[in-house]
């Protein structure tokens, strides 16, 4: 019988998560650039920790009954940021969970303060070419419309890094398997707790 490396990774991650789960007493909040993998890594992390997972953008869309792009188009970015802050504030009050935030959430001062005070922020980071490759797979992000995605991602990353750096935990999401990134997040949380 051959054992796939990914299943060994899953097994190791499950063991690590089991010992961590009972020590997590506040939301774990994934922050970082669009395309870095906050939602997919966050979802996997929640599954391992047996915590609820919420994607903040999806919650905003549900509350507004509109897509993020429709909110940007119809009401503008400040209106979106306001809704984003309110949704995240509510989620932060609902006990331990894993929350994936949109790339601009942690840049907004009030939202960042909320997350830093009531949650454990994890900055997921990776290089610009990887981000560009991932964000160009779909065309739903309003901030990427009307310009060269590579130039926009490069500029936003440079502008935003100093805010993301306020997160107490930073993990690099490399080009390898997702289980590897999840392991790094689990280990980083364990060290930080
Ligand atoms: C944004 C990122 C998006 C979404 C909105 C604005 C940003 O979320 O919240 O389009 O300002 O970077 P993802 O990071 O999940 O793409």
Task: Explain what you see.
The chain is an alpha/beta fold. It has a single domain, classed as P-loop containing nucleotide triphosphate hydrolases (Rossmann fold, 3-Layer(aba) Sandwich), CATH 3.40.50.300. It is built from nine helices and five strands. It has helices at residues 5-21, 38-49, 56-64, 68-75, 77-92, 109-118, 128-135, 149-164, 178-192; strands spanning 28-31, 53-55, 98-100, 120-125, 169-172. The protein has a five-stranded parallel sheet, sandwiched between helices. It starts with a helix and ends with a helix. Shikimate-3-phosphate (S3P) binds at residues 34, 57, 68, 102-104, 141-143. The site of shikimate-3-phosphate has 9 residues, from loops.
Task: Note the topology.
Blueprint: H1 5-21, E1 28-31, H2 38-49, E2 53-55, H3 56-64, H4 68-75, H5 77-92, E3 98-100, H6 109-118, E4 120-125, H7 128-135, H8 149-164, E5 169-172, H9 178-192
Parallel strand pairs: 1-3, 1-4, 2-3, 4-5
The protein binds shikimate-3-phosphate.
Shikimate-3-phosphate binds next to loops.
The proportion of residues forming helix, as a percent range, comes to: 55-70%
At the first level of CATH, what is the class?
Alpha Beta
Bound small-molecule species: shikimate-3-phosphate
The CATH H-level homologous superfamily? P-loop containing nucleotide triphosphate hydrolases
**Number of spatially distinct domains:** 1
Assembly state of the chains shown: single chain
Distance between the termini: 38 Å
Discrete helix count: 9
- Number of DSSP-assigned strands: 5
């Amino acid at each position: 019988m051959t054992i796939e490396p990914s299943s060994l990774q899953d097994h190791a991650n499950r063991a690590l998560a089991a010992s961590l789960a009972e020590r997590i007493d506040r939301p774990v909040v994934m922050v970082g650039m669009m395309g870095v993998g906050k939602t997919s890594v966050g979802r996997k992390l929640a599954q391992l920790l047996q915590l609820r997972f919420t994607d903040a953008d999806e919650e905003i869309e549900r509350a507004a009954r509109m897509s993020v792009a429709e909110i940007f188009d119809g009401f503008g970015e400040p209106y979106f940021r306001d809704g984003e802050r309110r949704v995240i504030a509510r989620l932060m009050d609902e006990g331990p969970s894993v929350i994936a935030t949109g790339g601009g959430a942690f840049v907004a001062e009030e939202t960042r303060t909320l997350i830093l005070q009531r949650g454990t922020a994890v900055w997921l980071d990776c290089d610009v070419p990887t981000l560009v490759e991932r964000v160009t797979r779909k065309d739903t992000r309003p901030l990427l419309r009307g310009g060269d995605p590579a130039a926009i991602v490069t500029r936003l990353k440079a502008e935003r890094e100093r805010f993301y750096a306020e997160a107490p935990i930073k993990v690099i999401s490399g080009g390898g398997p997702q289980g590897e990134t999840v392991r790094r997040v689990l280990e980083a949380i364990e060290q930080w707790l």
